[in-house]
Amino acid sequence: xxxxxxxxxxxxxxxxxxxxxxxxxxxxxxxxxxxxxxxxxxxxxxxxxxxxxxxxxxxxxxxxxxxxxxxxxxxxxxxxxxxxxxxxxxxxxxxxxxxxxxxxxxxxxxxxxxxxxxxxxxxxxxxxxxxxxxxxxxxxxxxxxxxxxxxxxxxxxxxxxxxxxxxxxxxxxxxxxxxxxxxxxxxxxxxxxxxxxxxxxxxxxxxxxxxxxxxxxxxxxxxxxxxxxxxxxxxxxxxxxxxxxxxxxxxxxxxxxxxxxxxxxxxxxxxxxxxxxxxxxxxxxxxxxxxxxxxxxxxxxxxxxxxxxxxxxxxxxxxxxxxxxxxxxxxxxxxxxxxxxxxxxxxxxxxxxxxxxxxxxxxxxxxxxxxxxxxxxxxxxxxxxxxxxxxxxxxxxxxxxxxxxxxxxxxxxxxxxxxxxxxxxxxxxxxxxxxxxxxxxxxxxxxxxxxxxxxxxxxxxxxxxxxxxxxxxxxxxxxxxxxxxxxxxxxxxxxxxxxxxxxxxxxxxxxxxxxxxxxxxxxxxxxxxxxxxxxxxxxxxxxxxxxxxxxxxxxxxxxxxxxxxxxxxxxxxxxxxxxxxxxxxxxxxxxxxxxxxxxxxxxxxxxxxxxxxx
Length: 614
Hints:
Layout: H1 15-39, H2 47-74, H3 78-99, H4 102-114, H5 120-135, H6 143-169, E1 174-177, H7 186-189, E2 193-197, E3 200-205, H8 210-216, H9 220-230, H10 237-254, H11 260-265, H12 273-308, H13 319-333, H14 338-342, H15 347-362, E4 364-368, E5 395-401, E6 409-418, E7 428-433, E8 436-437, E9 443-444, E10 447-454, H16 467-485, H17 500-503, H18 505-511, H19 517-523, H20 532-542, H21 554-562, H22 568-586, H23 593-613
Parallel strand pairs: 6-10
Antiparallel strand pairs: 1-3, 2-3, 4-5, 5-6, 7-10, 8-9
């Protein structure tokens, strides 16, 4: 395989170099705008002499822009994250400045009105630029209104960055003793960090382990404590969020919209908040009967369980009960032990199998870069090997089309698998470099990172994945592959920057492979067969039990696939509550947000209570 035509991004930035790079990139873009305004008369404006130079300038700076702002998502250095947040705010402020440039808007408006015959992507770029000016207040009649709008947009950018940073910095932590953790298997507890406080051993539950506690702890108070802790990991964001909602609502009002929700939905398939609300209402109606039946079954299981321990049943089924009794139902009605199943999905071998499956599916080849300055399929010249990674735990792959697909280079895929301070608290895909056509006609190749918060395995103890974690891996890889294989002219449309209505589709599609029997047989391999160390680890915990088969049996796979829709009506009903809450909050009228905020909270809690009382 030949060397990639473009080296991977380098992560050798300093805080000062990030902000200086942002300043220089903005200056380059500003100069392009000025040149267009100075040289093109409105009557001569065309896509080629107005929009194309803008797009080419954006493409030319896109690699550096996306790279320096990506530091805020994963850098282990807080100063680099802060600098990246500053850079992102600088770009947002410049975007607002651009949108209020009346001379530039007049040229873009002229191009739109003359109605040139354009390819689809160029037409979309023209419409995006036009709407960007309108939605950033250019047509506001009074200077005072424009200034007020601009000040609000700048504040919104700051609040959004603060909100995301607070999420990344937040950490879930609950300390429990053995009495609290009755029912949690020893092999699960062995993976918890523990400490002796006084004369009592206590176990630290965090974002990776708290669901395990809620699945196994027989003490309902423990489950409630963990649930409430997991739902309140970032309380400081409530103040940020409230101000953000107020400013969004006021900004939308100035632009002539009834709400921020109306503004955001205008270009999406739903079009209006009424369509969303009607859809959710109909969905709740269709789900309710099945959800009622599911809750009655779970209530009966809870009643039998608590009364078997000599406790009284209060007749209710709460959110913090669900992980426990859903797991119990899986074991009793589907003969599915999630802990035993997890032994077939050790993290590292599951990733290798996942990549192999997707190589076959998409005609791709993933080649890990392990020795950057040697024969690794990539030439880095004088670059330090450390500069192609932001942390020693990160893995990077060069991605190619296979021979049948032409054997050409596709891009770079990064895997940042392990929990670390400063990373987002949820799995996500972070684009690092967009694919696009550069001004000289050459292609810029994409780079993207998949971020997770798994526990780091050791030589003797593998990290075992629940089946839901395997689904999560495939989901995020779907976003990653979307980033890699997308072919766009303009950086602003690359990969997951596509319309939101489509952006989740590739990842949703890949989830199906986690329920396909042939792929489950290929994915699942018991960890005791991976190495002698792993076999010894399993043997020590097995207490004389026979060794499991290397691959999942047909009956185990059948039980797993049969469980796919277990309690799914409740799952979807809760999702409608989350979506409905978001739409309710974003539909708040300007300056009435405090009561609107209370109403939305009451609605959410009311629906939550209704779900619990079904």
